[in-house]
């Protein structure tokens, strides 16, 4: 089985490591490089995984996953490039995978050995509990088989889909920042519930379980539509379910009218626009 190197053992690196092990990948096929000694010790002890320098980790890896903060990418990629150049004689072609927000495929292609396959991934925080969604964008030298290999890795921490790289800022604004939008909504529901006499504990249980249950209903609908081959109109699922739970003249209709009056749709649209613009501003390109 292909050896996978994870460079950067922070929260996302650990999530990927834990997901791969959960999915049955063998510890002998994984190697992690983490520069913070305490963190490296924790990962080594918790997962019984081999910890190594960047150069050692890259040496025998078929997939090199970069999971450091954007500020560390420049130096890490130059270390990886040196190690990859030395490993070039190997028969295994190395695929370079990045989860680093905002750093373009071109940035890696310009620094890695010529023709290196690069796949850029935008995962999100729920990957930490195995329930993420990761958008993959393939560089020009990545083959469909290599992209499928990367998809299999990220399947271990949630759902996976593929988009052109040009859409990753929008993806960041939706699924990357999205968990915070939903957390804010739950927070607001809890506060409103408390204002209406429920204890904070009861309010939190009700709000969280309602969000999880609503997501489960949506997922079931998406799954059955996909199974039936109805890929078009998937985005109408939420509207249909909302209509289904809104009886004429009832409590839900009264509540929804207030949300609309409060401009919830316009606020969400503005939030996604602003997050996308911010993602574009923070981007690090090839130069
Ligand atoms: N967490 C998320 O939900 C999420 C979602 C989407 C994308 N991402 C992306 O994933 C990347 C990692 O995020 P994170 O939350 O896991 O960050 P993090 O917790 O800061 O993890 C990065 C880790 O990499 C280590 N590191 C830095 N340079 C290194 C080197 N040369 N060799 C070995 N290890 C090195 C860092 O050590 P030090 O502490 O010493 O710096 C740190 O422990 C980021 O670029 C982020 O944009 C994260």
Automatic annotation (TrEMBL):
- State the compartments where it is located: Cytoplasm
Q: Reaction catalysed by this chain?
A: L-proline + NADP(+) = (S)-1-pyrroline-5-carboxylate + NADPH + 2 H(+); L-proline + NAD(+) = (S)-1-pyrroline-5-carboxylate + NADH + 2 H(+)
Residue intervals of the Pyrroline-5-carboxylate reductase dimerisation domain = 165-282
An example Pfam family from this entry, by short name, is F420_oxidored
Which keywords describe this protein according to UniProt? Answer: Amino-acid biosynthesis, Cytoplasm, NADP, Oxidoreductase, Proline biosynthesis
Could you tell me the Gene Ontology terms of the biological process aspect for this record? L-proline biosynthetic process
Q: What are the TM regions of this chain, as residue ranges?
A: none
The pathway is: Amino-acid biosynthesis; L-proline biosynthesis; L-proline from L-glutamate 5-semialdehyde: step 1/1
Span of domain Pyrroline-5-carboxylate reductase catalytic N-terminal: 3-83
Give the record's GO CC terms: cytoplasm
A single Gene Ontology MF term assigned here is: pyrroline-5-carboxylate reductase activity
Q: Where does NADP(+) bind?
A: 7-12, 67-70
Task: Give the matching PROSITE patterns.
Answer: P5CR
Q: Which HAMAP family would you find in this protein's record?
A: P5C_reductase
Report the protein's function.
Catalyzes the reduction of 1-pyrroline-5-carboxylate (PCA) to L-proline.
Protein name, please?
A: Pyrroline-5-carboxylate reductase
